[in-house]
Amino acid sequence: MERYDNLPEAAAARVKRPLRLTWAGLFVERLTRAFWPLATVLFLALAWALSGLAAIAPLLVTQVVAGLVVIAGIATLVLGFARYRAPTKIDAMARLDASLPGAPIAALADAQAVGATDLGSRAVWEAHLARMATKLDAAKGQAPRADLAPRDPYAIRLIALTALAVALLFGVRAAGPGLTAMIPGAGGDQVAQASWEGWVEPPSYTGKPTLYLGDQAPGTLQVPEGSRVTLRLYGKVDEIEITETWSEEPPTEPVPTRLFTIDTDGTLTIGDDEWQVSAIDDADPAIEVSGELSRTLAGEMRQGFRATDDYGVATGTAQVTIDMPSVDRTFGLAAEPEPREPILVDLPMPFRGDRSEVEELLVENFAQHPWAELPVSVTFTATDAAGQTGTSTPFDIVLPGRRFLNPIAQAVIEMRRDILWTTDNAAASARILRAISNRPEDFFPKAEQAEMLRASLGPLEEEDLNPSVRDEVAQALWDLAIELEEGALNDALERLRRAQERLQEAMRQGATPDELSELMDELREAMRDYMEQLAQNAQPPENQLDQPDQGDNTMETTQQDLQEMMDRIEELMREGRTEEAAQMLQMLQQMMENMQMTQQQGQGQQSPGQQAMRGLQETLRNQRDLSDETFQEQEGQQGQQGQQQGQQQGQQGQEGQNGDQMGQNQPGEGQPGQGQQGTQEGQSDLQGSLSQRQRQLERELERQRNNLPGAGTEEGEAARDALDRAGRAMDEAAEALERGDTSGALDRQADAMEEMREGMRNLEDAMRREAEQQQEGQQGGEQSANRGGPQGNERDPLGREAGERGALSSDSPLADGEDVYRRAEELMEELRRRSGETERPQVERDYIERLLDLF
């Protein structure tokens, strides 16, 4: 390193400070590399002492550890001195010079070897030295490079440092006893100081945090009932007096650890600290029924409930028992029933979140249970994590069962119920079933169905019918009834229902978008299969073969409606509007059930109510078209007035906005009188045509009003009154058109359309009332409150109410397209935009405002 001896004093002065810092870094670097094993031993020893392990470990173990620490310390100290080499000034200068580009310090210390007497060579050398001197300004002190990772591949030094940090944070209170206990020969009883730690851990189901007693001020302490207390004593444990009121047999000798549970109010004393502990009672859960019971045609029941608990409801059950005093003990139910266990079902609970207040919906299907359609008593029970229970007030219902419309299916189900009630009914049920199977061609559409019934008669006619065979026969009879009720649709319908239920459950539980998309695809596939089987089973009556074929159109409309609804459900799920999607999915399910009912009841000619509704829809559509043309005529009048003003000013007239020119293309100069005369004649002819068409619509509405069904009913009379008001509005609109008052005509036409919609809504109510009365008669006086909706002839093939309460029908121009909802939103947005354009004529903006008010 003699190459740095000739460094000029000026250059040495410029690197003096960086050189000192670099030397200090080298010193720390070599010291760390040499003595890191010694530091590791010291860190481990301090961690042992400060953590309190030395205080609680046996004295012999503590002394052995202390001896090992001393031996390891001496060994690592000797090894460190053997490895250590003190850094020199030359070492620091070499480290600093290596950090600079071009090694300027060594260059400045060099001398010119050749050409020293040559002036040119001398000048080049001096220029080189000047450039090297400028690089000294970038000199900075170099940090130490311990590079311990290759020397300590197992990171023992980091483990020791972590142990020391943990001991400093959590074991400082035991530091005194630990350090003194490590001294060989020093009796722990002579120098160890007594200390303690304590924790109060509430039951996990409470969700409350653990309390550290050392941080709790003496006085009143409230903790949940069942909290577990842990006390740890260090040092001279006999010097710490502990008293508590919860242990039945407190220890007589001092122990380093005390455990007990707080189940009542009491007192805890540790040395000079005392707490009055109050145990917070764990209240019993409470549960009650919310809302009314609902049922579906398939026998599915839905009942809401609300459960509460101070720390959260763990589980819940619903128990269903037969209400024998309320059972009509006639026919097959007159015999003494066989004993059956109550029905127990688990109540749905949220998977995540707070359970202190739970509002859920129990959805179950008991259609195949022997108690279906019989009086039962239902009791809800809620249980918390501590095992405490709370029950609701029992409520009496008729256990929902599947509603069968096929008379033979009804008879089969009744016989099935009788044999499940008791096997003593087997013989009587067999006789009735055999009578049904006597003439299979009159009752069974397929020969296989009659064979299914005959196969069930053999076991029923045997003298000893054991329960297992009885259950097999009951299942066979159920399958036969389903086959009679649904025909070949059963498999596809079950898949469709299962897909709907899975999608509903996934939305309720907050499934991911990918999971919802997969379930939506499953629903689409099940829907497609069901529609195919429905189309195959649809056979028009013989008396309709000579009429226009509406089956294909109906099926096409049905598929389009269902497709649009499923598209809308998927769109709502993508937007995160799961509640709206669930509601629309429920509507879809109701539509499918109604479609099934319509398929079972057969297709016939349209009822008078349907014919009247369709005629009113057509009249409303014509009135809307006439109103649009009236508005266009008013636009033309406004454009003509602007032309006349332009002609008076000698300017060229402008064209009307809606393209109805009719004499408006006359130049501003020439013979304006002739152009105005031609325009006025054209407008007069058009207004006459509009008024005539308005009169025709008025006469057509009067004819429909006179032929309107539902006479004598409140809803029917309300429909007639609304249509009468609509007719008067049409008459006033026609008079306004005859006067040339298009603005007034538009107002009266809007009133006429609104009254027509009101009349259609009243007509629909009348049709619904008639359908409900028909169903009540068909069901033998059964209550219709639990029906899925009126199912009569006044419904379309989807079972929807005719007219949809005045909404647009599926053949309306607005309903065409792939997404009627999106188109409706776009139309409303366009109307709002146009209403805010001030450059449009006032009459047009007034018309748009009326449209917005109506829709």
Automatic annotation (TrEMBL):
Biased composition regions of type Basic and acidic residues, renumbered to the chain: 695-705, 717-741, 748-772, 793-804
InterPro entries: ARM-type_fold (IPR016024), CHP02302_TM (IPR012683)
Transmembrane segments: 35-57, 63-82, 154-172
Biased composition (Low complexity): 633-669, 677-694, 774-783
Keywords from the named record: Membrane, Transmembrane, Transmembrane helix
Region named Disordered: 536-555, 628-822
Pfam family, one: DUF4175
Protein name: TIGR02302 family protein
Species this protein is from: Maritimibacter alkaliphilus HTCC2654
Higher taxonomy: Bacteria, Pseudomonadati, Pseudomonadota, Alphaproteobacteria, Rhodobacterales
